[in-house]
DNA sequence: GTGAAAGCGCTAACAA
DNA sequence: TTGTTAGCGCTTTCAC
């Protein structure tokens, strides 16, 4: 509540400020924007008047003149869900710093609504659009030859020349695998989501590649199923049956990992002593609620959002950023579920 | 100005439309807005030209003239988390229908940032502000005598005259209790979050009141603890010790309920046969992942958001909506965890 | 029925 | 150093 200027019920224009400071409107403008040369006394008088009246320049008017709006649109099909939110926050972070405000739109994954919102955003003269999603599957772009730059974050346009920022699913899988190998595990199983998901396939590929480099291969079959705990429970049983000597399980999501953890516990396998467990997503309520707390791959969604915003800002500034796909590295969050087994007695 | 080298489609002004249709700007404006009387032929000519050129009226210019922006701000301290998102979506729903766009801001629960964002929103001449939060605890308002109406959703201003829309924690507690009573349970325990949370206290009060009406009281003490699964696991043990004959447990959150469910299973109590379980939040990944799937109280967050938006729209329209707190009823989502025990065979 | 002109709040030339 | 003027894109009188 520092500024006493707050609380002006009526809108104060620069006209009012000029009048109060007994200068012309033009002079007031210059004083407020620190442009041109003028007596310090005059400038101070204007600034004081502005302060006193609680003057806020009207960005509509400024924008009208400058031909800019200092706004961008953020369109999500994920209903701002678990994945798009961190992305969104990262983006807002980067944009907010640049005085750019964000219009949010939720399309509910409906192309009609999406079309509608994009129209609306363009009508509002946003200077760019960020599209986020829940999956990394390539999707049709929101339109071609749009008058503003578009960046896809955590989703990918089928048009290869569009700018897309996506997580490193494959690298994440490899990261998990190498961590397990480093803690001495060699019989590593994999329970993951539906095969039709690019993300699931990539994570599995990352695992296989890393194991391959160590002369190993996944224990049992790679088990594709659902993105659910229930499947985690089932999958673990299948895996224990197919590869009873499994000593680590990498899961395609934290939810799956929780299901796996439960089954392991019920089958008398201790985590991490008998079987180490790695999840994917670093979805904290899941990962921390798990017994034991879950080591998991973090896709750095916030970074994806920040990067998307930065690309967009560059594009708005006219700097050619070069289209194409940018992959943001994943990182590993270590918790109890992969604590190195103490030497057995 | 946009870089001249940009291949972006050039913005079409009403001037261009007027020229193309060979009418004056004023006539073009009237034709486009369906105002005034004019020859159908003229109107059609203008509309055709606008269509052909892809004309979109510039809302900045329109707003400048009308003194409106058709935007509102949405400020959250919850980092658009689990609670504020459904609220947000509900709000966006109601606002979007009215052609109002939403600026989003995340304050990260930092008063400085909040102050900053509110300033920014006001500078942008939003016509109203919705404040959402993660808790229902009363919080200081975002400022007094703001030039635009403010509605608090899923949070509450300490200033009683402010408009706040909050969930019915007490009613939700009562709802859970009555449901359990209706399925024949009489020894009902309660494990919930920290006592310092208004929400936890209200839910407990709702339970007690409903039990009281049936001449009962909670089994064991009401156990206040944390909003975590871990506490759910511990709390269940405490409760089983204090009231071994407990036949139902109402939990202050779905996360707690999951913890409780785990302990119950490990102690050999079947859910729902031996002990029925009710959660709070209807947080689907938690409630559905639970074994068995959880009956839980839904706060109808979307409705809170919609209502907040509607209040705001009314206020913007100048309709006195009357300040104060509005409580949105909760509902119960039935799942396996309270299935009426079948007659034992 | 149509057009010319004023002005929304602001900035950037140019005059004084 | 300061004031005046001409718009940014649009809507809206009010003459014609």
TrEMBL record, chains A, B:
PROSITE patterns: HTH_LACI_1, HTH_LACI_2. One of its GO terms (molecular function) is DNA binding. Keywords: DNA-binding, Transcription, Transcription regulation. It comes from the Bacteria. Residues 12-66 form the HTH lacI-type domain. InterPro entries: HTH_LacI, LacI/GalR-like_sensor, Lambda_DNA-bd_dom_sf, Peripla_BP_I. The keyword Transcription applies. Gene3D superfamilies: 3.40.50.2300, lambda repressor-like DNA-binding domains. This is LacI family DNA-binding transcriptional regulator. It comes from Nonomuraea marmarensis.
């Amino acid at each position: 509540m520092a500024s006493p200027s707050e609380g002006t019920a009526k809108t104060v224009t620069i006209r009012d400020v000029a009048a109060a400071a007994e200068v012309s409107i033009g002079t007031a403008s210059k004083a407020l924007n620190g442009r041109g040369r003028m007596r310090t006394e005059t400038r101070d008088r204007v600034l004081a008047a502005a302060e006193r009246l609680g003057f806020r320049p009207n960005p509509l008017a400024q924008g009208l003149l400058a031909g800019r709006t200092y706004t961008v649109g953020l369109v999500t099909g994920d209903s701002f869900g678990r994945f798009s939110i961190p992305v969104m926050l990262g983006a807002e972070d980067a944009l907010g710093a640049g005085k750019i405000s964000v219009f949010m739109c939720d399309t509910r994954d409906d192309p009609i609504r999406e079309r509608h919102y994009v129209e609306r955003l363009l009508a509002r003269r946003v200077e760019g659009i960020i599209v986020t999603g829940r999956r990394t599957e390539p999707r049709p772009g929101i339109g071609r030859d749009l008058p503003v730059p578009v960046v896809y974050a955590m989703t990918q346009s089928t048009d290869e020349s569009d700018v897309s920022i996506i997580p490193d699913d494959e690298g994440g899988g490899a990261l998990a695998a190498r961590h397990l190998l480093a803690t001495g595990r060699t019989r590593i199983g994999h329970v993951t989501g539906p095969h039709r998901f690019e993300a699931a396939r990539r994570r599995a590929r990352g695992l296989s590649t890393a194991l391959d480099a160590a002369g190993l291969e996944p224990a049992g079959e790679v088990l594709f199923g659902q993105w659910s705990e229930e499947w985690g429970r089932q999958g673990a049983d299948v895996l224990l049956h197919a590869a009873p000597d499994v000593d680590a399980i990498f899961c395609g999501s934290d939810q799956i990992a929780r299901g796996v953890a439960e089954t392991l516990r019920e089958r008398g396998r201790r985590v991490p002593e008998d079987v180490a467990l790695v999840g994917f997503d670093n979805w904290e309520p899941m990962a921390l609620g798990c017994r034991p707390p879950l080591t998991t791959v973090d896709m750095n969604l916030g970074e994806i959002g920040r990067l998307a915003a930065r690309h967009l800002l560059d594009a708005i500034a006219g700097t050619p950023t070069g289209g194409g796909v940018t992959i943001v590295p994943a990182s590993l969050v270590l918790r109890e579920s992969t604590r190195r087994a103490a030497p057995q007695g």
